[in-house]
Design a protein that fits this description.
Strand content: under 5%
Structural class: mainly alpha
Distance between the termini: 17 Å
Number of helices: 7
Low-confidence stretches: 1-5, 146-150
Length: about 180
């Protein structure tokens, strides 16, 4: 945990507040409607750039841009392979603009762990372990069934904004703990 904290960048309170508001709202709408609205993700991206640039000038713009760019490099291919939905990718871009690249790595790792645990839980509860294991090689096939595509009504997809929110709130908690708040 101490090693991870050394690689995290402190965030201004305004960015933490915007991030918390963004991810809680996204999780709520994803649970209720299985959708993350564009107005929310675009507002998050705009807030990230505006907050960092206003407080830190060009250096702040660089923080937001590097975070946003890293999100594009990591999550766009997952969208193109249909492993993530478009709303999830835009939400991670907004999170990245607010957190910066270093902190996005923390959010990504925590989200991946939480998402894996949640997915395993859903698979076990629904009695789909065998089917899921058989589908793993098919995830890389050029043509595959709808149950393997994010956002398809046949898939057992999870509301990803929930784990993204939990990971983002964990980041805020870690940052505040590291700063003695």
């Amino acid at each position: 945990s101490g090693r991870m904290r050394r690689h995290m960048m402190a965030l201004p309170v305004a960015a933490e507040a915007a991030l918390a508001t963004l991810v809680v709202t996204a999780a709520t709408t994803d649970i209720r409607r299985r959708q993350i609205p564009n107005w929310l993700t675009m507002s998050g991206i705009g807030a990230g750039f505006a907050i960092h640039t206003t407080l830190y000038g060009w250096q702040g713009l660089k923080v937001a841009a590097l975070g946003f760019g890293l999100a594009a490099v990591v999550f766009l291919p997952l969208f193109l392979m249909r492993w993530l939905g478009g709303g999830d990718v835009k939400l991670m871009a907004a999170v990245a603009a607010l957190t910066g690249a270093e902190n996005l790595v923390v959010v990504f790792v925590v989200d991946a762990l939480l998402g894996g645990v949640a997915a395993l839980g859903v698979v076990l509860i629904r009695g789909r372990l065998g089917r899921t294991l058989r589908n793993i090689p098919r995830m890389f096939a050029k043509e595959r069934s709808g149950e393997l595509e994010a956002g398809n009504e046949k898939s057992t997809g999870l509301p990803r904004a929930v784990t993204i929110a939990a990971a983002s709130l964990t980041l805020i908690w870690l940052l505040n703990r590291a700063q003695g708040r």
